[in-house]
Amino acid sequence: HNMFLLLVEQAISFIPCLPSGSHTVVELLEHGQNVVVVDNLYNASYEAILRIEQITGKKVHFFKCDILNLDGLRKVFNKFDVWSVIHFAGLKAVGESTQIPLAYYRNSITGTLNLLQAMNETNVKNFVFSSSATVYGNPPVIPIPETSPIGSTNPYGRTKTFIEQILMDLCAADPNFNAALLRYFNPAGAHPSGLMGESPNGVPNNLMPFLSQVAIGKRDKLRVFGDDYPTKDGTAIRDYIHVVDVSLGHLAALEKLKTNPGCVVYNLGSGEGSTVLEMIQAMNKAVGRKLSYELCPRRPGDVTNLTADPSKANKELNWKAEKTLDEMCVSLWNWQTKNPNGFEGFDVNPPAEC
Ligand code: WQD
């Protein structure tokens, strides 16, 4: 979805309905910020906004708007005295991006350029970007420092790389412009209340939402993509990080922007790698029974290991992933059991359009 978070004077912010986005709203609200959400609701639900209000007891302003609609963005930017933007935007499936690259580039690059244009016209100088570990491609060293070479292997990853580059160029051109590029590793889990979590449309691309749908009986078994990787059990390693920790990373990045740092880059990861089989075991423990899976060939585009070296963010943002794998699995299962179909079926119409 086209979703972004915008911090306004007195800290009004927009939030994306992506799990890490809507969780970021909750954390911002609970840390005394105000929030405005802008979403084209392409495959998101306004219900997520109502849940945020339920969790926090605070009002969330909402505008239905596509970031490809520059005039719509302008209207919103002119409604508020904007301080900063956090931009999570866009489509996020690696495999899908190889099938419809133009949609990925148009949605992500043109959408971001529109956003930056609306910011420029209203003198907004602070930007936090939701980037991804996928920009590292197949990294030479594990754990991965921010200085690891960039080498995306798919259009999705390249959209992240290109936007990072645009922001670096913008910061080089305008000494008052500040951008924090946050390279997410693998967000997992859900809000502890069980009121909010990932609600993928169709078949989930990602491991944990798929696994929780197996647990709830929506999918018959997990296909494990590859057991011939050079790892302890042959399955691929990722750095799973709780969505609440990812959200708190954004609050820390916003604080960093207040110091006028220019362009800064951080890994948002735990620093702990887990194999697919270890994630299945962790979920079995949370669910209380063994979830079925079958070993299948590797998924094209996957790499052996993406584990963060999070020490730069730990130090410079004074931020650290605190939640455990068990908390990720328990919160995910709590969300899934309370919302067997995610936000499906909650089709409340949003109050305002751009
Ligand atoms: C994790 C591991 C799969 C599904 C991508 C993006 C990244 C981020 C998360 C947005 C891999 C294996 C998966 C399945 C499996 N996107 N797997 N069976 O590919 O590491 O990262 O999504 O925030 O930017 O690059 O995440 O969850 O798809 O896969 O075996 O049904 O689980 O092979 O090893 P990935 P993932």
TrEMBL record:
Record's keyword terms, sorted: Isomerase, NAD
Gene Ontology MF: a single term: UDP-glucose 4-epimerase activity
Pathways involved: Carbohydrate metabolism; hexose metabolism; Carbohydrate metabolism; galactose metabolism
Cofactor(s) the protein needs: NAD(+)
Gene Ontology biological-process annotations: galactose metabolic process
Keyword Transmembrane: no
Catalytic reaction list: UDP-alpha-D-glucose = UDP-alpha-D-galactose
Record's function text: Mutarotase converts alpha-aldose to the beta-anomer. It is active on D-glucose, L-arabinose, D-xylose, D-galactose, maltose and lactose.
Name of the protein described by the UniProt record: NAD(P)-binding domain-containing protein
Organism listed in the record: Umbelopsis vinacea
Portion of the parent chain present: 108 to 461 of 466
